[in-house]
Design goal:
CATH topology of the largest domain in chain A: Rossmann fold
CATH architecture of the largest domain in chain B: 3-Layer(bba) Sandwich
Shape of chain B: globular
Radius of gyration of chain B: 20 Å
Shape of chain A: globular
CATH topology of the largest domain in chain B: Glucose Oxidase, domain 1
Largest interface: A-B, 39 and 35 residues
Largest sheet of chain B: 7 strands, mixed
CATH architecture of the largest domain in chain A: 3-Layer(aba) Sandwich
Number of helices of chain B: 12
Structural class of chain A: alpha/beta
Number of domains of chain A: 2
Number of domains of chain B: 2
Strand order of the largest sheet of chain B: 6-13-12-7-8-9-10
Strand content of chain A: 15-25%
Number of strands of chain A: 13
Number of helices of chain A: 9
Order of helices and strands of chain A: EHEHEHHEHEHEEHEHEHEEEE
Distance between the termini of chain A: 15 Å
Oligomer: heterodimer
CATH class of the largest domain in chain A: Alpha Beta
Distance between the termini of chain B: 25 Å
CATH superfamily of the largest domain in chain B: LD-carboxypeptidase A C-terminal domain-like
Order of helices and strands of chain B: HHHEHEHEHHEHEHEEHEHEHEEEE
Strand order of the largest sheet of chain A: 6-13-12-7-8-9-10
CATH class of the largest domain in chain B: Alpha Beta
Largest sheet of chain A: 7 strands, mixed
Helix content of chain B: 25-40%
Number of strands of chain B: 13
């Protein structure tokens, strides 16, 4: 059984931390103000706008200690990651989730934060929120439906998302626990104890900045690891900023994914609003959903 | 040159190493020599080094028969495409070594980046596996694509009648699968595109790298002395050698082809990856338990590293990354080993028992039997 952390009430505190890449303070201000305008207190960790001169927001120890403190601080009801980048894999095995397990709270983010979603799902059996992070609040993002979907999720409003039809969609309906995130991280976790198990799950995928051949290679990996054969359904988000090789790969991302799931018959939808772009709605990892793909639209409904 | 050395009277190096200047490092008095000078050692049989229980430790790996002049070497493209003119220098040189070359029908075939469709590449490779006259399969090039066909191939014949599969980079898929699933040794080395067009004017390091393939397929035991770097962690390991391209080792995770590295010497190399991703791949090896029980780690070239964005330097080089990821272990680690996407990429026999000696003044990887 997956436990669902308590939803937030006005006055609750959200902790803001960077467990992976560096982020400057200026980029989190709109996020902080918006969370406050939603009625929450914000506790800003020292990893935000830290003195780190490297890629990371702090040393492994600093990032780990701050995340650990937020996991264990009962006054913090949710942990919003400032940004992704890379770095959670370096600290995940040093985090102690024993208190968190008894007092679960929402862990929020995407991209590199997929490591936390998978680990929480697979090891800690706790739901988490795949959702926009601090930078998404900037440039008017806070007023868009995507950031607002995070607000609704935190309040406990059940989601019901509709995506436009896509010619490549495979129709069908399924119910299952939602899992997913960044394809590179889902592939990277395979072989570790944090790897998702996908049986009967609705899997969503997105990625950014990968070569097309590498997207194919990662899909082959998922397939060879037995992670595509027994899905309940597949949700394909956006793959942004695809790198091209000098010799063309000859297939689009959509064609690649289609080819790898052609032998199965579960519903598949493409162009779902989950991505590194503006279109990135809040998704509750570990929570039961229903995916309905018809010729006219795709609907992902939280049950 | 190698022929001549091979015909030297056999010496038992242990009998009197001090009289043999080439082996002076054995008693700690090695003079600094270039790798190339030291490479000459590779031509000597070294059975005298075998550990007593060595044979038992590799008996579950089948070693294909070594080649002799007149044997046939097949060339196939299981990954990227290769043109007939690209492989021509390799064909001519291999013929000059006394072998017959069988050119697979994927050479010259092209499906975008692939050397033919998945079906075509699988069929050509399958034909090479099943043709009893083909004693070794040299992959024309790497790139990407072996992972797409590996599960279509039937290795039953190869398991019964092992033959050498030769290549690196994407061909790490085969090395992994052959080791883990088929239990057959294979050769990690340069491929056709790296054979020099003009042997006479080619860099010696390139010709030596190519000749190391010849030595490997002919059964000359490997011994590679390498100059040490200060980052190395000293120690001695005797174990099976496994490894290849780090990205492919990560990518094989979760599949039947993923190598169990427990009790083995692992070598890794990669090209064109950013440092953060190299770190992430080592995290994958660590978190999937593949760094924990190693006997030794050989870090080859990590070339053409994609630069960090200037405002967010990763702050670690390959030495630091590996040292951090292996800090809790105490097995020997050596860096800058001549394996990788570079000119000095010497043939390694995956699955065979080796001794890795990492000393402050000398690193040696040596095949033992």
């Amino acid at each position: 059984m997956i436990q669902i952390p308590p939803y937030l009430r006005k006055g609750d505190t959200i902790g803001l931390t960077c467990p992976a890449g560096y982020m400057e303070s200026a980029k989190v201000q709109t996020c902080i103000q918006t969370l406050q305008s939603w009625g929450y207190e914000v506790m800003v960790g020292k990893t935000i706008g830290s003195k780190s001169k490297t890629y990371f927001s702090g040393t492994d120890g600093e990032r780990r200690d701050e995340f650990q403190a937020m996991l264990d601080d009962d006054s913090i009801k949710a942990i919003l990651c400032g940004r992704g980048g890379y770095g959670v894999s370096r600290i995940i095995d040093e985090l102690d989730f024993s208190r968190f397990k008894k007092h679960p709270k929402w862990v929020i983010g995407f991209s590199d934060i997929t490591v936390l979603h998978a680990h929480l799902n697979q090891r800690i059996k706790t739901a988490s929120l795949h959702a926009p992070m601090a930078n998404a609040f900037n440039d008017g993002g806070a007023k868009k439906i995507y950031v607002q979907s995070l607000q609704k999720a935190l309040k406990g409003i059940k989601s019901n998302y509709t995506a436009k039809a896509h010619a490549a969609n495979r129709t069908g309906t399924c119910e299952g626990k939602l899992i997913g995130g960044n394809l590179a991280l889902i592939a990277h976790l395979v072989g570790s104890k944090s790897a998702y198990k996908t049986r009967n799950r609705i899997l969503f995928l997105e990625d950014i900045g990968e070569y097309i051949y590498n997207i194919d290679r990662m899909m082959v990996q998922l397939k060879r690891a037995g992670m595509l054969s027994n899905l309940g359904g597949l949700i394909v988000g956006k793959f942004s900023d695809i790198h091209k090789t000098v010799r063309p790969f000859g297939q689009t991302v959509q064609q690649i994914i289609q080819s790898h799931v052609a032998e199965y018959d579960y519903p598949v939808c493409y162009d779902f609003p989950v991505s590194h772009e503006l279109e990135n709605i809040a998704l509750k990892v570990g929570v039961m959903h229903q995916l309905t793909v018809t010729k006219n639209r795709s609907v992902l409904k939280e049950l | 040159m190698p022929e001549e050395r091979k015909r030297r009277p056999l010496e038992h190096p242990n009998q009197n190493p001090k009289n043999n200047p080439d082996f002076s490092y054995l008693d700690g008095h090695m003079q600094r020599k270039s790798f190339l000078q030291l490479l000459g050692l590779g031509m000597l049989p070294l059975s005298g080094f075998a550990a007593p229980e060595a044979a038992n430790r590799v008996r579950h790996i089948k070693v294909p028969a070594y080649l002799k002049p007149g044997d046939t070497i097949g060339i196939a493209c299981p990954s990227g495409f290769s043109l007939p003119e690209t492989i021509q220098p390799a064909v001519e040189l291999i013929q000059s070594w006394g072998y017959t070359v069988k050119i697979g029908n994927t050479v010259g075939k092209r499906d975008f980046t692939f050397g033919g469709t998945d079906e075509e590449r699988a069929a050509d490779f399958q034909a090479m596996i099943d043709d009893p006259s083909v004693k070794a399969i040299l992959c024309a090039t790497g790139g990407y694509g072996a992972g797409r066909i590996i599960d279509r191939l039937n290795f039953d014949t190869l398991k019964r009648h092992p033959k050498w599969v030769i290549g690196f980079s994407d061909i790490t898929v085969f090395h992994s699968h052959l080791h883990q699933v088929c239990r057959v040794a294979s050769i990690h080395s340069k491929m056709c595109g790296s054979f020099p067009k003009d042997w006479a004017t080619a860099d010696q390091v390139q010709t030596d790298s190519i000749l190391s393939i010849k030595n490997a397929i002919e059964g000359v035991p490997v011994i590679y002395p390498v100059l040490p770097v200060p980052h190395n962690r000293t120690g001695i390991a005797e174990a099976q050698l496994v490894g290849g391209n780090l990205k492919i080792l990560e990518n094989m995770s979760g599949s039947v082809s993923s190598i169990s590295t427990d009790g083995k010497i692992l070598f890794v190399e990669d090209v064109g990856e950013p440092l953060y991703n190299i770190d992430r791949m080592f995290s994958n090896l660590l978190r999937s338990g593949r760094l924990t029980k190693l006997k030794g780690l050989i870090v080859g070239g990590f070339t053409n590293i994609k630069p960090d964005s200037p405002d967010a330097p990763f702050g670690r080089d390959i030495y630091t990354i590996v040292k951090e990821q292996t800090s809790r272990f105490d097995y020997p680690v050596c860096f800058d080993f001549p394996v990788g996407h570079q000119k000095n990429n010497f043939a390694l026999k995956c699955g065979l028992l080796h001794r890795l000696t990492v000393d402050t003044d000398q690193v040696t990887l040596q095949e033992i039997s």
